[in-house]
Amino acid sequence: MPIRPLAARITKLLPVLVRYGAGIGVRGLEVVGKLGLYMLAARSLGAHDAGMFFLCLTWAGLAASIARMGLDRALTRHVAAELAVGAGRAARADVISGMIWSMLASLVAGALTYAVAQPAALYLFAEPALAGPFALAAFAIPPLALSVMVGSVLAGLQQGVLAQFVQNALWPLLTLVALVAFATKLDELLLAMIASMTIAGLAGLAPIVRWFLRAGDATASVAVEGEGMGAGMGAAAALPGLWRTALPLSVVEIIQVSLVSLPMLALGVFATPAEVGAFSIAHRISMLILVVIMSIGAIAAPSFAACHRRGEIDELRRINRQTRLVVLLFGLPGIAVMALFPATLLNLIGPGFDIARTALIIMAMGQLVSCLLPCQDIVLAMTGHGAYLRTLNLIQFITCVVLGALLLPAFGASGAALVAAIGVAQGAIGTTLMLRRVMPGAF
Q1: What is the pLDDT at residue 54?
Q2: Could you tell me if 190 and 175 are in contact, meaning their C-beta atoms sit under 8 angstroms apart?
Q3: How many CB atoms lie within 10 A of CB 437?
Q4: Do 159 and 298 contact (CB within 8 A), yes or no?
Q5: How confident is the model at residue 177 (pLDDT cuts 50, 70, 90)?
């Protein structure tokens, strides 16, 4: 593309960059909080206990994702789409249902985690000292699920910046403060993390309660038509039930968090806690690109849902293209730093972590593909194509399980990095091809 047209295009994007930049600014707070937490935890706890901390954190994230059952993404879509046609009462009913079911499921997940903590430590990870921290991690599951759920509702209310602060930035920052102040032991740090997640979840409830207490409900007449590309092109199509939206997305959510979590959990079976700690740091650094993508996608998601509900496919395509360009502008510099200076980044964490430099380069390449083809899974989810997304993710999961069985025993951390990179790249390519097939006008 010639330089002048490109410059003019970027100039027109400045208001959009400011909007998305606010979201990325919040995610910047998340990066500061999480990187500071990981770095100081690694220095304070040592490689062995830091590895156990990351295992506990990873498991809590996986269990909380399973407990949400896809209701978080479903609520973002339903709240944004219902409010786009004035159906406030329907949006509130979905919020109540989704919150109740996700909280019940997170309590069950926490209880099960507590029950299996000792056998998992002994027989799965062969680390008896992990039993106590693993049991503590069970108490992080309900508040973590709550913070994500309330953030998803806030995103549907077009409060994307606040949503990301509640979901991603507040609890790491609070935990970091606790680590600096007093939580220098593993158990203390886990307790501080649980308290921080609880505060984040409760803080996010406040604006939702205010929305519920507003008087009146302008409910529009909604025509009942089919769901998908042909629906609602001239009038608003009725949304499917919340569970119909959530169930395929629950499979997607579980698989996506599994693809993030399983390489490290599986590495814990084959490697020492110190090696797991080094890989975990490299993996989390590489995931900073995903933080950028998710930040921009979270702000764009309600607009995707609203445009599709009103049948504004041209506007949906414009927002999609805009979103992809913004991701490139914000994401590519970070990938370049990871690929060119991996040892420098890892040495900032502490001595001994640079053994994962090859793994960081490999995972950065996977994130490059994701950065070039970002957010198409969000478009599919927000436009009622969760079933296609579920199929793609199942194929992605099978690929990674097979590759993991072959690569992890033989190559350790580098093998885990290959599995993670291939999974990320396959997801980006697959969702892009699927969207071009089922909704070519939206790409």
Answers
A1: 84
A2: no
A3: 10
A4: no
A5: very high
For residue 223, the tally of other CB atoms under 10 A from its CB is: 13
Would you state the structure tokens that stand for residue 355, as one six-digit string?
């053994």
Reduce the DSSP state of residue 223 to 3 states and report it: strand
Distance CA 36, CA 14 (A): 31
Mean pLDDT, the chain, whole residue set: 85
Both tokens of residue 404? Answer: 């993991």
Give phi and psi for 237, each to the nearest 5.
-85, 145
Neighbours of 8 (CB within 10 A): 11
Structure tokens at 149: 């759920």
Element at 380 (helix H, strand E):
helix 376-382
Average pLDDT over residues 43-67: 86
Residue-wise DSSP of 347-381? HHH-TTGGGGHHHHHHHHHHHHHHHHS-SHHHHHH
Task: Enter the tokens of residue 240.
Answer: 């499917």
Mean pLDDT calculated for residue range 392-396 = 92
Alpha carbon distance 379, 375 (integer Å):
7
For the chain, the first-to-last Cα distance in angstroms comes to 19
Instruction: Please list the residues that pair with 355 across neighbouring strands.
Output: none
Separation between Cα atoms, residue 318 and residue 385, nearest integer Å = 19
CA–CA separation, 302 and 104 (whole Å): 26
Alpha-carbon span 164 to 295, nearest angstrom: 7
| φ/ψ (deg, to 5) at 196 | -65, -40
Residue 370 CA: distances (Å) to CA of 258, 291, 363, 430: 17, 11, 11, 11
Query: 15: pLDDT confidence band, cut at 50, 70 and 90?
Result: low
Higher pLDDT, 45 or 108: 108
Cα–Cα separations (whole angstroms), residue 131 to 7, 55, 63: 57, 11, 17
Q: Which residue has the higher pLDDT, 414 or 273?
A: 414
For the CA atoms of 412, 413, 414, 418, the dihedral, rounded to the nearest 10 degrees, stands at 100
Provide the H-helix boundaries in 224-312. Answer: 242-270, 273-286, 288-310
CA gap 267, 79 in Å, rounded: 39
Among the residue ranges 51-60, 70-79, 120-129, 219-228, the one predicted with the least confidence is 219-228
pLDDT score for 346: 87
| Dihedral over Cα of 265, 334, 65, 382: its sign | negative
